[in-house]
Amino acid sequence: MRIAVVSDLHLAAEASVCRGGRSERALLQWLDLLAERHDRVVLLGDIWETLAPRRLGDGRAELERAAARWPGVMARISDPAFVYIHGNHDLVAAQVLNSPSEWRVCADGLRLWFTHGHQFDKFSSTANSERAFWAVGWVMRAGLRRLVERLDGVDQVLGGAHRLQARCQVQKRAVTAARAASVDLIVTGHTHLGGVFDHGDVQYLNSGTGAGGRRSCLSIDTATRRWFWIDGKAEARMRLRFNRPLLHSH
Ligand SMILES: [Mn+2]
């Protein structure tokens, strides 16, 4: 099975708080190209930005407004070629769209677990984070996008995310959970730090982000047991951090 993974688009109704770009056409071209080349495209959470409404707690209305601005993305969510899993910034989709928190699949003898990853983050899994992200929305409306981009780094520190495998607490917790659940691959987004990370018996994969001008994604082929992360920022087609094929099987 060939699976592409995209996450953290942060599509919002208002341009000032939308980190996912301006053109839906360009975004759909990318998603449809991935759908053409894979059996499934997993939309792994934070596809919608519903934590930055004008009024705190208005997430449901915010999702409707965002969907009206990005109708093609919403149409793909109900397309069988796509699997949509909610994250913390689109948690409201669990009720409104019946979006699950995870997808577990077994293919070619590999067990895979797809989940957004905020549950492994000590900051985003707290109730205070909703208020914090709502405040960030107003900072963005004030035109301080650059500041927010720096806040992304603060968010990573608070949540325990790190670019380096050995220092990433989110990754460490995800791998512990994967071992307890007896899966071979755990795939998350959330930290915006994409890559393929070898933990021996478990592989941790992160899709990175499709926001901030990036088009990062994962491509997984369970038949050949190869998976790679594409950093959508610079060399869009460059294959980074190839994994070693898994030798064991269940
Ligand atoms: Mn997230």
Brief synopsis:
With 250 residues, the chain is an alpha/beta fold. It has helices at 24-37, 59-69, 71-77, 93-96, 128-141, 145-159, 169-180, and strands at 2-6, 40-44, 82-85, 102-107, 110-115, 185-188, 195-198, 203-206, 217-221, 226-230, 239-240. Manganese (II) ion binds next to loops.
Describe the structure.
The protein is of the alpha/beta class and 250 residues long. Helix 2 (59-69) packs across helix 3 (71-77). The chain has a single domain (2-240), classed as 4-Layer Sandwich (Purple Acid Phosphatase, chain A, domain 2), CATH 3.60.21. It has helices spanning 24-37, 59-69, 71-77, 93-96, 128-141, 145-159, 169-180; strands at residues 2-6, 40-44, 82-85, 102-107, 110-115, 185-188, 195-198, 203-206, 217-221, 226-230, 239-240. Bound molecules: manganese (II) ion.
Judged by helices, strands and strand pairing, the structural class is alpha/beta
**CATH fold group:** Purple Acid Phosphatase, chain A, domain 2
What is the CATH class designation? Answer: Alpha Beta
Our estimate of the beta-strand percent is 15-25%
Q: Compute the number of structural domains.
A: 1
